[in-house]
Amino acid sequence: MYPIHSFDTVPSTNSLAKKLAENGAPHGTAVIAANQTEGRGRLGKNWHSVAGKGLYCSIIVRPKLSPEDFCKITLAAGLGAAVAVDRITGGFSQLKWPNDIFLDGKKCGGILTESSALNESAARRFAVIGIGLNLSSSLEDFPEDLRDKVTSISLQTGICPDASHVFLTLRDEILQQLEMFSSDGFQPILASWRARDFLLGKHMECVRPDGKIIAGVSLGPDNEGQLHVKDLGGRTHTVLSGDIRLAEKNKKPLDE
Ligand code: BTN
Fold first, then answer.
1. Which helix (H) or strand (E) covers residue 172, if one does?
2. CA pair distance 87, 199, nearest whole angstrom
3. Which structural domains are found in the chain, ordered by start?
4. In 147, 193, 231, 254, which residue has its Cα 20 to 30 A from 137's Cα atom?
5. What is the pLDDT of residues 59-113, one digit of tens each?
6. How far is the CA of 256 from the centre of ligand 1 (A)?
């Protein structure tokens, strides 16, 4: 049995899970909350939590992986989350690099993975996989500027899923993907991830942490999980991190 710590409201399930992990909490320990007051997203952004209408959880993992492989955990977790969403909805969810969960072209969930220092001893090394999933939120629950980009499981499918059931499904699928990663390596995970790649072949822009914008067509993740983008001059860029958005040009055929 994996320990579960449930709360009504916390600042951030990831922050709490990190503290538990630093104090030795075992693999599979989870923190779940019905609401977060300081939910965190990737790249220092806020995560908008809607009380009682979403799943906000963080899972502590201590996989048997080399430190170099820890950065790939986030793709494996995204794949597990997408498989879990499909089990709940009966549909086919997609992944937008690195690990946004998409239903019918709109974001219904995101993942923030945070790791311990990678030079920690294997016994102390951990990652916290934080998942935010919009379950029964309506568009009015989101800030106006996000409404054309986000969705929830109930908006897309009419299904109003139970948060505890979704959590257990997510946790099982994510832990299973990590088991497979440790035993069979990253390639099978990557192959399944690529089959769900929302950005593949689309025009996109990536705003890198240094502010530089790379515009081009997504070629998908490479064998290390890093995104390749072919710019309009034909040069291929490797993206390690950044804010990815679809380009307006994407609405036109690629050969125009
Ligand atoms: C993103 O899309 O930028 C990632 C969002 C991750 C949000 C989840 S909600 C549960 C966990 N706790 C946090 O503070 N963040 C993650």
1. helix 163-184
2. 23
3. 4-194 (3.30.930.10), 203-246 (2.30.30.100)
4. 193
5. 999 999 999 999 999 999 999 999 999 999 999 999 999 999 999 999 999 999 9
6. 37
